[in-house]
Input
Amino acid sequence: MRLAAHLNEQDGRPASPPALALGIFERVGSNWLSDSLRGAMPQHNEPFRQQLGREHPLSPGNRVPPSLQGTGLSGLGWHHLLCALSDLHGQPRHLVKETNLFFATDTVLGMLPESPAVVLTRAPIGIASSFARGRLWDRWRYGDRYAQVAATARAPRWRTVFAPLLPQDDPDPATALGRLIVVNSLLLARALSDGDEPSRRPRLVIPYEQHVSDPGRTEVGLTQFLGIGMPEPADESPNAAGTTTATDTTFATTGRKDTLVAELAAGVVDLVSAAVEKTVAQARQQLDPEVTETVTQRLAGDDQYEVHEPVPRPNRRVRPQPSPQRMAKPAYRPVGQAQWRNLLVTNAEMAELLTMLHAGGAVNSRLGTNLLVCPMPHERGGRLHHDPADRRWRVSRGYESHPAYWVTWIGAAVAAAWFGARLPSRAEALAATKGARAYNSGYVVGDSCPVVEPGLGDREIHHLIGNVQIWCGDGPALPASQPMQRYLFGAAWNTPSTEDAVSAVRSRYLLGSSRGVGVRLVRDPRTTDAARLGAWELAHLLNQWVDAVNESARTTPGGLDRLLISSLGL
Output
C-alpha cells in the first residue's frame, strides 16, 4: 500500500512496473539481453539475489525464505525494501534481471505482480557446457549452493513436493546441476502459472537456441513485447590498449555465437540428461501437469547441439600487463571550479574505513540490509570481505589497488566525509569529462583494473571515465515523500563509453549498489582536511540514523533519506 502511494506519480508521469528477465537457470543469455537493451531501459542486475545478504529473509540464499508477510524485517529492512521497489519503477520502463531465485521466486514475483516477464530458457547440456568451459561449478561454489537449496526444500512449506527432487546424497556435479536446473525451472513455471484463471502477467519465452540461430527474429519479438525500439550497438572508440577482447569473458557479451556446440565428455552428457529426466518424472507425481509440461518444453533442445569432447584452451591474457610503475600518490588537481582527486577510491582505502567504522559500532549489514557496501563473494566479483574472527575488512589478494565497487551512495558519502571531501555533482562531472576517453570500458578487461592508469603521472586524473562509474552528490528532483535518489555518472568496465552512454541520465536509491559503480572525490573551499569526520563520529551518525529509521515506521522514505543527508552535513 505504501509503495502504491509513492508510485502514484513519479516526475509528474505514471511510473511503469519493471519488465522482468527471468532465467530458468544461469548461462541462458541474460547478460546479452541486459546489455542489448541498456540504451533503451535502465538496468537492475539481480537486486534480490545479489544485493541482499544471506541472512536477509527475502534473500534467495536464505535457507527458509518466508512469505513477504512473515519476514520480521526491521524498520531499516522495510525502508530498504520500499526504496528498492520504488527504484525499479519508472519512465522509461526499467529491466530487472533475476536468475536462480529458487524458493524466493514466489515472494519476489509477488512484489511485482504487474510486471511483464521475459523467460529465458536453454537446453540443459548447453547450460552444462557453459558451466564446464568457465569452471563455474567450482568458481561459483555450486556444491554449497546445492546443499543450501536441498536444505530449503525440506522446510515445511516445500518438503512434500521438492524434498524428493533434491536428495542429500552428495551427488556428482553433473547430476546436481541437472537437478537444480529442473527445480528452479519448476518453481518459476509454478509461480507464473495461473491455473484456470487468465494471466494478468504478460510473458515472452526466448529459448537461447532461437537467439543463436535466428537473432533477428528474437530481437523483433522482444522489442514488440516490450514496446521499444532495439538500440543500436554502441560504437566504441578505440581504447588505449588497442583491443576489445576481454581477458575474463564470463560476463562479456561482445562476442556473438552462430552455432550450438556443447563441449562435454559423453559421460557428463549422460549424467546431466539422466538427472533432468528423472527429476521431471518425479515432479509429475506431485505437481500440476500444466507446470511439468511447461518445464518439459522449456528444457527441450539438447538435440540441437553438436556435442564435442572438451578442447583444452590456453590460459592466455589478451591485454598485455603494463610494466611495473611507481604507484601514484592520491592528490587533488584543479578541474573547473573544484579540485578532483587524481585516483578513484581503492579497495584498500575502503577496507580501512569499514574496519574503523565496525570498531566504532557501525556494522555494515543489518539483517541482510547492506548499509555501506555489498560484500559479494570473490567468485561473484566481490573484493571486500569482512573477517568476523579478526573483526577486520580484507581485500581479495591482488585487488588492493583496484577501485572499490559494490558501494552504496551512503558508503560513498561516508567515505567522502572521512577523506574531508565530497562527491561531484552531475554537472561538474559532465564538464570535467568532456572529450575524455576510457582506458577500461565495454568488457575490454572483463573487470576493473588498478586505479593508476598506465602512462599517466601524479598530476593527471586517472580513469577520468571508465573502470567504474561514480556516485554523484546530487540527484533528480522527486516529490518529498518519495525515496531520494542520486545520479550515477560515467562508464564502467562493463558499460559502453560512448559520449551518449557516458552522459545518459541515470540514478539509484541511496542503499543501491552495483559491481560497476565506485567513488571519485572532489574538494572545494568548504571540504578540506580540516573538515574530515573521524570514523567514530561517522559510526555514531550512522547508528543514530538507523535507530531513527527503526523507530519511525510512519515517516516517509524521502523524509528519512533527507535526515541522513542532513546528519552527514551534505
Notes: The longest strand covers residues 19-23. Confidence is low (pLDDT under 50) at residues 237-245, 316-324. The chain is about 35% helix and 10% strand.
